[in-house]
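Thread: "does anyone have the structure for this chain?"

Original post by V.I.:
We have the sequence but no experimental structure in hand. Need at least a predicted one for the grant figures.
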Amino acid sequence: MNFLKEKSIYFILFFTLLFFMQGVVKLPVMDRDEARFATASKTMMETKNFVDIKMHDEVRYKKPIGIYWLQSISNYFFGNPPYNEIWVYRLPSIIGVILSIFFIYNFVRKEYGHKDSILCVYFLILPIITISEVHQAKTDSFLFLTVVTSNLILIKGLKDNYLSLKNKLLFWFISASGVLIKGPIIFVFTILPLSILSIFKKKNYFKIIWTLRGFLLFLLISVPWFVAITIISDGLFWHESAINDLFSKVRSGQESHGFPPGYYSILMLLMFWPGVIFIPVLLNKIFKDFKLSFLKKDYEIFIFFWFIIPLILYELIPTKLPHYIFPSYAALSILLSSVVGKSFFSEVTQKFSFFILCFYPICFLIAQIFIVNEYSNIDISLWLITFLGIFTLVMLIINFYKKDIFRLIFSACIFQAIIYFSAVYYLIPKLEILWVSEKINSFIDKKIKNVDKVLLYGFNEPSLTFLTSHKAIKKNIIDYNLKKNEKILYIVTNQYSSFIKKKSFNEFKLIQKFEGFNYSQGKKVEINFFEN
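Reply from O.Q.:
Generated one for you, tokens below.
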């Protein structure tokens, strides 16, 4: 029994990996960020240029090089030319989260016990924010890993009031890796909370991690690429990444993502379920005996600051996206698991927690019906999924009032499994109207042996570039120098296809068309396929 208890984390993470890999493999490439990251990595492998960042034929200077190297390494081991399998690009994301959860489990188990560590693992695995991030080939899941590992080293130093040189060097190595992944953002979750702790306790905690050799290691790893890209881009990288991307988001809401303060706190009801159910318990504990519980140990105060400081900062920044505070959820999971295992709902917290318990499942079930009705047609399968969801919600409520936390979490697991499997095996094929790039790519694959060139025009989403950059050219037929007897497959949106009827293009015939929905722009699009 002890063996099973000690090794349970390996079974949990193994089955989590198998579970999530189904969606990682089946979910089509998503617009726009994921497709842009993947296309830039694909271009890197095609050109063998692992310093500059280009998305096919245009520069991509939003983020540093780290994620592109990781996706290239993933393709080296698991991919094959033409490197257009999106699941390979997603492997760093799922690996980053799985490793993070393993490290957090080990910390919580040693500090608070086995039951609390298992709770913490479920608080991290089950939320929709985690599920979303492991299924996207972006920076955030690996940033999550660098933040978690850095902060666990800091916690060890705060707990022991000492860090070995090996751990100090490891901290600076991980910090450098984090900077190469997403610039200085890692320090918002590591150095900033440590700074606030130092001010709060009137004590210099930087001496715990400081070592000249470590700082030199940090510079040695992180600086060379930034120097190289500055020279290659003639300074354009800094203008695009720092001024146009980072500072613009701080100054005002960018790309239709501007929201007022309170956005993350409200969104937590959806993004961090089921862990969010227990936040009233945590708040009650904090307000009830703050000094006793949270001012006793420096490392516990640091964990609290790791959650609250980035949350406050990002609430104040105009541009907001759900994943911006993803690393803070690790700290929140630790805090919740340390409290929930020792105290359950009081009369006051129970009312709030009951509302939170029901809010996410009801919203999700309603949203699923609305989406299917909007973009497809309602069928018996949808009603079966909805019935299973309602049945599980009833089980959640029963276990909630029985105050059986592990059965409650188990019921939450079942609900999330229903939602996940319905998304992967029902919604993805059901909502084919959304997968415009996939349909275009499939048609190209059917026709490519019978034509000399494939031209694309009008539909410019990055997902199409990722899937077709090795076999199609983005060009208007008007601007193409058509050779005699050259067979062309011309794929164009309806708004740009009228000139085909002109006399000079009368040899082109419409062979197929379909209507899809461009979810990035929120509008319908008609794709026409012409052949000469």
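V.I.: this helps a lot. The mean pLDDT is 92.
O.Q.: and The chain has three domains: 91-340, 347-430, 434-531.
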